[in-house]
Amino acid sequence: MCAAGDLPESAAGGHGGTDPAFSALLEDSAEDLYDNAPCGYVSTLLDGTIAKINATLLRWLGRDRDAVVGRMSFPDLLTVGGRMYYETHFAPLLHMQGELGGVALELKAADGTRLPVLLTSTVKTGADGQAQLIRISVFDARDRRRYEQELLRAREQAERERDRVQQLARTLQQTLLPPALPAVPGMDVAAYYHPASLDQVGGDFYDLFPLSGDTWGFFLGDVSGKGENAAVVTSLIRYTLRGAAVYDPDPTSVLGHLNTVLYQAYQGEFPRFCTVVYGSIRLDGDGAVMTLAGGGHTPALIFRAGGTSSLLHLHGGQLVGALPQARFVAGEVRLGPGDAVLLYTDGLTEARTGVDAWYSEEDLREDLAGLAPATASAVIGAVSELLDRLGDGVEDDTALLALSVRPPEGRGT
Asked: Which of 178, 250, 263, 275 is deepest in the core (most CB within 10 A)?
């Protein structure tokens, strides 16, 4: 409250009081503030009959004061749905709690239009604590409604755009992987792709294809980076590996040819390289001989029919495409009836299992030890379940490819 010295000279009385004209101005301003406030005010009797209403709310509703005060109840100003909510929820809660705020309803104007509002209400009590009146403040929520509708439209548009991006990513990803693995006589084969993100195309890849005679070529790898640039490199790698294998099926020669292509094509502002394992497999008697060459890739996991498992490390193999003359290391493994091999990318073995803990190749071998002996489909099924258990810890895409030699009784083509 202002002191007399803070008032205008014309308003200060000569005897320390307040000028009557200024008092009248204050009183008039208070009434004007109520009647022409930026929000609506309405007071009702306990049965809802309107006892007082300000000009602001009357203007919003397009109604005359004489037609409202004492003649209408507040629920009469609401839409049908709003009236039901008022009578079943708003009024009972208000009588129980004595106040209620932030309730969104709609008022019905005289011309039938709807006015979205927010209501805040309190119960006025007398000296004896008995309820006398209900006071309601009405806030125009049209701007808020428009804002919410714009937000909703923006969200729906963003969701449609995200769905479109995800569909494009899925479609592009499918073009980078074989639609189905071919049937290999005497063997079972299976593959799986686990995307870490639905919005981006990953750089993991695999393939299986026939070579001459009873020999089959296969590969699995991971391109650096993600998105459309990685997809372009992945496509180049797939076709290069297939073409190189036809020209010279020796695994180290195939990787050497790929290294030359990648190094020459992607040196500059955006260098690209990959880790990859390329191999060939051919049936030999009741088993198969597999030759693998590795370029900085994770070790293959071998399952033996006798119940053991081991990691096949190809130490010394270098990244493909990073150096003009990279070194690649090959190894040969004989698979007997009931044996299986699993190839995988490092999205699996670099999954986070704690704050400073990651899944490893040894963890994988231990978790799958109970599978041996196993078929290719059983191995892929077990690893896909493992990826699901690791959940959000899998932060990179994971590609899986498994091959197994059928026992003699199941060697149909």
From this structure: 275
Identify any residues that bridge with 191 across adjacent strands, giving them in sequence order: 401
Architecture of the structural domain at 178-410: 4-Layer Sandwich (3.60)
pLDDT at 109 over 70: yes
Task: Give the CA count within 13 Å in the CB-facing half-sphere of 7.
Answer: 19
Whether the domain at 18-140 and the domain at 178-410 fall into the same CATH topology: no
What are the residue boundaries of the structural domains of the chain, listed by start? 18-140, 178-410
Closest to 241 measured CA to CA, from 224, 218, 266, 222? 218
Question: Which residues have C-beta within 8 Å of that of residue 62, sequence separation ≥ 6?
Answer: 109, 110, 111
Q: Which residues contact 109 (CB under 8 A, 6 or more apart)?
A: 60, 61, 62, 63, 115
pLDDT in tens, 20-60: 666 665 566 778 888 888 899 999 999 999 999 999 999 99
Prior bond of 299 cis (ω within 30°): no
How far CA 234 is from CA of 197, 258, 279, 294, 318, in Å, comes to 17, 12, 18, 17, 18
Which pLDDT score, from 0 to 100, does residue 164 have? 66
Residues 236-284 pLDDT 10s: 888 899 999 988 989 999 999 999 998 888 776 566 788 999 999 998 8
Q: So what's the pLDDT on residue 268? A: 63
Rounded to whole angstroms, the Cα distance separating 406 from 58 reads: 86
Report which of 279, 281, 276 is spatially closest to residue 258, judged by C-alpha positions: 276
Q: Which two tokens stand for residue 185?
A: 């006589």
Structure tokens at 312: 């096949």
What pLDDT was estimated at residue 170? 60
User: Encoding tokens for residue 129?
Assistant: 């604590």
Domain 18-140 has CATH 3.30.450.20: yes
- When computed from its CA atoms, the radius of gyration of the chain, rounded to whole angstroms, is 39
End-to-end C-alpha distance for the chain, whole angstroms: 98
Q: Is 394 helix (H, G, I), strand (E, B) or coil?
A: coil
Give whole-number Cα distances, 158 to 34, 146, 227, 229, in Å: 44, 18, 19, 24
Task: Compute the distance between CA of residue 400 and CA of residue 56 in angstroms, rounded to an integer.
Answer: 69
